[in-house]
Amino acid sequence: MHSYSLLASAKINLYLEIIGARPDGYHNLIMVLQSIDLADQIDLRPSGTEAIYLHCNHPEVPQDESNLAYKAAALIAEKFPDAFAKYGGVNITIDKRIPVGAGLAGGSTNAAAVLVGLNLMWNLKLSQRQLQYLGSLLGSDVPFCIVGGTMLATGRGEYLTPLPAVDNFYVVLGKYRSLSVSTAWAYQTFRHKYLQANVSDDFAPENHKQRAYSEKMVYAIARNQERQIGQLLYNDLERVVLPQYPQVQRLKEEFQDLGCAGMMSGSGPTVFALTKSQQEAQQVLESVKIVIPDPDLDLWVAKFTSSSIRVASSVK
Ligand code: C5P
C-alpha cells in the first residue's frame, strides 16, 4: 500500500453575505471562495494496526478524535468497513503552516486532504462529488476544500458553482498570533444582532432583499475586472468581529491606507489585502510591519491558486 504526502491549501472569502438564519442553527450564505497557495502538508501512512493516529507540530491543534482530519479518517473507516478491514488504520501527520483559528479553513482543508488521500490509499474510487458529500458531513467549508479554485458557494456553503479562475492576484495576510475567533460565536452573534426575528428554512437568494453585491462580484470575476473585484470585497461577519477586536479593525485600515483593498476572511481574525504582483505584496507587508511594529502580528504573502488538494508525493 502507498503512503501519500498531500498539500492542502487555505482559502479566503472574497465575498461572504449572510442571507438568513436557519432552524438548524446554521445560516444560508452567498460566498465567493478562493484558494491560496498557503498550504499545510498532510502525510498519510499505513499504521500497521487498526487504529487512526494523528500528530501535528502546532501546539494549539488537537491531536485526538476532536480534530477534523481525524474525524475525516473515522468517517471513511465507518462508511467503508471492508476497506478499513483490508487496509487497516492510518497515521496522519500534519505539518501546520496555515494559521489556526484564523478564518482560512485550515481545519477543513486538512479534513479534505484526508478524504482525498484515503480515497487513493484504500483504492475506493470515489468521485469528486462523493467526496464532497462526505466532506459536507464534516463541515461547511470541506466540500469547497476538496475542489478549490474560485467558487460561488451557497446554502450552508456546500453548494458550489465553479467561477472562472482569477489566479492573477497576490494576497498579503495579517493575523495576530494570540487572537483566534470562534466561527460559531461570530455567526451566533450576528444572528442575535441582525437576524433574530427572521428564521426561515427556505433558501432562495432572489427572494431576499440583498444588501450587498454578489451578482456584481460574480460579473467582475467572469470579466476578470481586477479593480472591481477589489472594490467589491465584502464580509458580513466584519460587522460583529471588527467592533470586538479593534486591532483587527486597525489592521484593515492600515491596508486601506496603503491603497489596497483590505477585508477580513471568513469569521476572522485574518485580514487580507489584494495586490497585482509579488513585489507589491512584499512592499505592503514591509510597510505594515513598520506602521504596526507588534511582534504578535504575523504577516504572509501568498498567491491565488486554482487547486486545493495536491498529491506532492507517494511511496510504496
Ligand atoms: O460547518 P462548520 O462546523 O464548519 O461550522 C462551524 C460553525 O459556524 C457552526 O457551528 C455554525 O455555528 C457556524 N456556521 C453557520 N452557518 C454556516 C456555516 C457555519 O452558522 N453556513
Q: Biggest sheet, open or closed, and with what strands and sense?
A: 8 strands, mixed
Molecules bound to protein: cytidine-5'-monophosphate
Alpha plus pi helix count: 11
Summarize the amount of helix as a percent range.
Answer: 25-40%
Number of domains: 2
Strand content: 25-35%
**What is the approximate shape?**
globular
Mean pLDDT: 94
Number of strands: 12
Low-pLDDT runs of 5+ residues are: none
Name the CATH class of the largest domain.
Alpha Beta
Radius of gyration: 19 Å
Q: Give the CA-CA distance, first to last residue.
A: 6 Å
Structural class from helices and strands? Answer: alpha+beta
Q: Please write the string of helix (H) and strand (E) elements.
A: EEEHHEHHHEEEHHHEHHEEHEE
The CATH architecture name of the largest domain reads 2-Layer Sandwich
Task: Give the helices and strands, then pairings.
Layout: E1 3-21, E2 27-46, E3 52-56, H1 68-79, H2 81-87, E4 90-95, H3 106-121, H4 128-136, H5 142-147, E5 150-155, E6 159-162, E7 170-176, H6 183-195, H7 214-222, H8 226-231, E8 234-235, H9 238-244, H10 246-257, E9 262-264, E10 271-275, H11 278-291, E11 297-303, E12 309-315
Parallel strand pairs: 1-8, 3-4
Antiparallel strand pairs: 1-2, 1-12, 2-4, 2-5, 5-6, 7-10, 7-11, 9-10
Bound molecules: cytidine-5'-monophosphate.
